[in-house]
Amino acid sequence: MRIFDPHIHMSSRTTDDYEAMYAAGVRALVEPAFWLGQPRTSVGSYTDYFDALIGWERFRAAQFGIRHHCTIALNPKEANDPRCREVLDVLPRYLAKDGVVAVGEVGYDSMTKEEDEVFARQLAMALEHDLPVMVHTPHRDKLEGTKRTLDVVREAGIAPERVIVDHLNEVTVELVKDSGAWMGFSIYPDTKMDEHRMVEILRRYGLDKMIVNSAADWGRSDPLKTAKTGQAMLDGGFTEADVDKVLWQNPVAFYDQSGRLTLDPLPGFTGEAETFEGNSVLRGARK
């Protein structure tokens, strides 16, 4: 089982997590820029964070055999803070960096006028920099937020196949599928979506443009939820090829639209994932 986790916040995870992820088959990931849990109060705090995403975190992941990529944006929650608005002016220099594979997370938190403005401006940047877009759907009033998201994306003139709409559930999946955008699902211990519900969604809607992520961050979350979803798929009658499509081929196809993915094995690591008899966790092999 090879895994590309397309949405995980490794800046808030430990080196033990990196080791466990590699052992489970994770060979590449994308870390979206997001809220840190408390307000940032200046542009400088953002640029320090962006610098860490494209530098230190990429280096840290490599020590454990995992290719690290990121997305860059002013996130929806902080779009409402006027102290953060100047961040939009520095985004272009980061969107040109190696390893930045999309604009994101963008979208809605509370669906305010300020979020509308910031969302539209960052969609314009995605067009200007020829990057795909990762969209965060709100945790409250998700159906209305998803409808509004798709309207704004259409108005911006971005092709739907260049957009992933994330944090979906049973209520919103069909809406996004009909739009032609990619469908993202965050598998969480308590909220959002679990692996068993995800299997039923895959059974009903198919595997095309389906993206499964752990979205693990500083809250109660699990960086191995991608692997656990793959195992649940196998237990539910899906084939190994099906699992590979959902956990590897689909996220690779989406982010490869950036032209910046690096997926070859890191020096000292084989990139292979081997199944050990009697162990449902797939382990990677180091040279």
TrEMBL record:
| Molecular function terms from GO | hydrolase activity, acting on ester bonds; metal ion binding
What UniProt keywords apply to this chain's record, in alphabetical order?
Hydrolase, Metal-binding
Cited Gene3D superfamilies = Metal-dependent hydrolases
Keyword Hydrolase assigned to the entry: answer is: yes
- Name of one Pfam family that matches: TatD_DNase
The record ties this protein, via InterPro entries, to: Metal_Hydrolase, TatD-like, UCP005295
Protein family: Belongs to the metallo-dependent hydrolases superfamily.
Q: What is this protein called?
A: Putative metal-dependent TIM-barrel fold hydrolase
Species this chain originates from: Amycolatopsis umgeniensis
